[in-house]
Structure to design on (320 residues):
């Protein structure tokens, strides 16, 4: 019986030890960053706020309270850019993007704000009330950078018996991040027929299209041919128009100069740089801003044995 009793004690001790490893975690509560005092203050507005350009709402969330002597007191706000003037954000290269700011309080409709001007008065509150500062970007504004930023100052003025009494000022930054995107639109086929052929003259043709996007100001262009490239007796590399009988060398080039109609050189390796023109809002492509030019040398087409030649050019654009 003694042996049995000892064995039972070992099992009992092991079972108790298993439950001794429980760890209790204390909850953590983040503290709000506030500017002002218990009577007039903003919380979580000071500092930097990052906004996504693609977001349907571009809001800066913070809280605001205004009271005195245990009673809610009305207030008004004034927002200014750190350098004065219109509300705007700057890219790293210094390009300006004008924005509009609106203010909403107690989940009410938004009130437009004007640089350096106090808003209408809003009813105060004894507690911190959710507020929104909304950033609005004109959809027709060209977005030529992936990052914009601006420094602003908000002054909150408290009113007692219709007269201004005390105010608090808070500085904050707004950062706008843009995901670069680039597209080609309106690019069609280039048709060249014999009605414009003259002995001893090169045959020219071109097609206009649109390079569209946001988050960049320049881009690279490269061309590639389904039929490949070849070199003539001078060592000049050219693309190939082909049919079942033979091939015709030709040159292809790209330009963002809409006045240029002559091919300068074959773009069969490397890239050429171009600038995105700002004559349209992102995603609209109201006008073409790029041109693909082809040139068939006289010494090429005059030796043709066939009547119909084709090639497929691939145009690749890469934002910078």
């Amino acid at each position: 019986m003694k042996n049995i009793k000892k064995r039972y004690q070992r099992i009992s001790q092991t079972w108790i030890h298993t439950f001794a490893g429980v760890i209790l975690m204390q909850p953590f509560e983040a503290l709000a960053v506030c500017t002002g005092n218990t009577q007039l203050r903003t919380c979580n507005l000071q500092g930097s706020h990052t906004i996504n350009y693609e977001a349907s709402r571009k809001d800066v969330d913070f809280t605001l309270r205004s009271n005195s002597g245990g009673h809610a007191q009305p207030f008004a706000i004034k927002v200014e850019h750190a350098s004065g003037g219109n509300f705007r954000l700057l890219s790293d290269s210094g390009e300006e993007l004008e924005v509009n700011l609106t203010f909403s309080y107690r989940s009410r409709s938004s009130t437009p704000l004007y640089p350096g001007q106090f808003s209408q008065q809003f009813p105060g509150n004894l507690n911190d009330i959710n507020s929104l500062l909304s950033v609005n970007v004109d959809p027709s504004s060209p977005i030529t950078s992936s990052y914009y930023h601006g420094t602003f100052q908000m002054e909150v003025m408290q009113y007692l018996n219709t007269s201004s009494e005390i105010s608090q000022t808070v500085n904050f930054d707004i950062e706008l991040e843009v995901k670069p995107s680039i597209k080609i639109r309106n690019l069609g086929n280039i048709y060249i027929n014999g009605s414009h052929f003259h002995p001893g003259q090169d045959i020219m043709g071109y097609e206009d299209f649109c390079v569209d996007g946001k988050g960049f100001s320049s881009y690279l262009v490269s061309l590639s041919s389904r039929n490949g490239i070849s070199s003539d007796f001078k060592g000049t590399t050219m693309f190939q128009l082909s049919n079942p009988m033979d091939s015709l060398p030709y040159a292809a080039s790209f330009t963002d100069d809409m006045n240029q109609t002559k091919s300068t050189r074959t773009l069969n390796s490397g890239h050429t740089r171009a600038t995105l023109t700002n004559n349209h809002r992102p995603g609209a492509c109201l006008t073409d801003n790029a041109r693909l030019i082809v040139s068939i040398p006289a010494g090429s087409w005059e030796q043709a044995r066939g009547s119909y030649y084709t090639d497929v050019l691939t145009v690749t654009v890469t934002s910078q």
